[in-house]
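Bumping with the actual sequence this time:
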Amino acid sequence: MSARALLQLLLLAQGVTVALLAWGALALGLVASPWLAAGFGAGVVLLVRLLITANSFVMSARYASATPQQFRLDAAARVRLFCAEFMASLLHSSWFMARAAPRQRIYPDATLAPVLLLHGYGCNSGYWAHLTPLLEAARISHATLDLEPLMAGIDDYVPLVQRAALALCEASGAPRVTIVAHSMGGLVARAWLRVHGSARAARVITLGTPHHGTSLAQFGPGRNAAQMQRASGAAPESAWLRALAASETAATRALITSLYTHHDNIVSPQSSGALEGARNVAFGGVGHVALGSDAQVLACVMGELARPCNA
């Protein structure tokens, strides 16, 4: 099942739940108006969604790395962090990703390398709904890709990336592509470099990628989740992550820019977002899903795209 179909099924289930709760509220006399009953049902569903987001922050705190002084938040900033992450999760799962399909946009007069967008675990190309308008405004050719099957191994996505990269190069006339990847997508990009080298890669920009694994992956199904796991001990990264790192040269790492947040609620410890030998850019006050919609992060992505590849 695709991420889009799964999300649509979940939305249907939520709609049925709202209807049943509304019917129950009316039948029990808790409310007198059908509109109030519908509001009650919707409110309960939203509360459950809010608790799911809250649980991700609680779970990530169990494995969190130390937050540098300059990124520590006061109470008001923490509330903004939570609200932004909740809204980003709600909008992406209930609207953008539930409607998305892979797309390609080519600008013949583009001066920058075309961009191939790779989403993260359990998502699809709809994750990039906030970045693609910026790429269009800058007339940067780009394409999105759905990484499926959802629970496949990370290496299984490499042929999809290679075909998409070659197709984007052919359509745009460019010799190389820039990959912008969120979360697991960054590991997919590194796995692609391991197999195919950098002949087609101008650079790789990752957002919230668990380069050294995340402890929360133990709660996710699928081979890809197992490959992203991080444990305690002398060798916390999974065997797959250790093999990936061992395969990379300094030149490969120099192609990568890693954007990560010290308040990531999915990648924990948050320091896992930093990659040795890469260009690392840290943020604070931004959650995992919100990395794809935060104005400051998106401005940084656009700045990285414009930066000369040898800079």
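The tokens above came from a reply further down the thread. The longest strand covers residues 201-207.
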